[in-house]
User: What shape does this take?
Amino acid sequence: MPDLIVPIAPIVPNARPAATVLVLRDSPAGPEVFMVRRHEGTAFMGGAHVFPGGRVDAADADGNDSWSDGIAHAAQQLDGLPATEAIAYHVAAARELFEEAGVLLARQPNGDFVSLAGAADHDRLKADRPRVHGGETSLRAVIEREHLRLALDALVLFSHWVTPPIDSRQFDTRFFMTRVPPHQTPAHDDTETTHSLWVRPADAIAQSMRDEIVLPPPTWSTLRELEPFASVEDALSWARQRPVIRRMPKALEQDGHRMLVMPGDPLHPDPAGDDSPAETRFVLIDGRWRAERPPT
Assistant: This one.
């Protein structure tokens, strides 16, 4: 029998809105996902391998039909929110993807995604990344200068995670999925992120188990969900049809270790709601979250 299980009391009453994007590509061995390693000095998840993403800023509510495609799509995907908030989540996802990975989800007037294969285009837009991140310019200004349309309809909502309110950084995060546009090559920003890689979900899990990379619990669970798919289209089709259910891990302390349990775990009050990964609990050991299955 385990020792006394103690709930960790919440501190923060409201979570900050955030958006995360899984960028996928096909490979002979199956879909690969682009991941970045957060800078060691970052307060939240420093040193961890994650998907590009970050907070929703006030300026992200500026999305509208004058420079963006998919406004109705964005509102429909998050139809439980006011349209302005729903659109802001999508704009934030596209902006963070540009800032952290250099992927620009935007179309040219002929409907094709913008190509960054040319050296001049690549260098010009690469220079915009830190300027957008630093607030010197906006994603809208970049899109309009390049005579493009932001492609919000390329973002497929598939998950909703809320970090447990146990410290000063609680986030209410929508996870989106997209296929990497042709003629674009993601790359980390060398500021908030220090390394990047394309990796099969199963390989990322294996690397984490060998302590080669650090995966936060929602990242681990998401990779587990992607493992079965044979192609990017299979993953996108699943994402389009999947009911999106809010998940908030519950923080506990057991046997002197901090633990996070997921909905569907015997120690969590909420049901899984769908086919959740087998590992429904994570134990913090030596600074790493270790995935575990509940005892049978």
Residues 83-101 form the longest helix (19 residues).
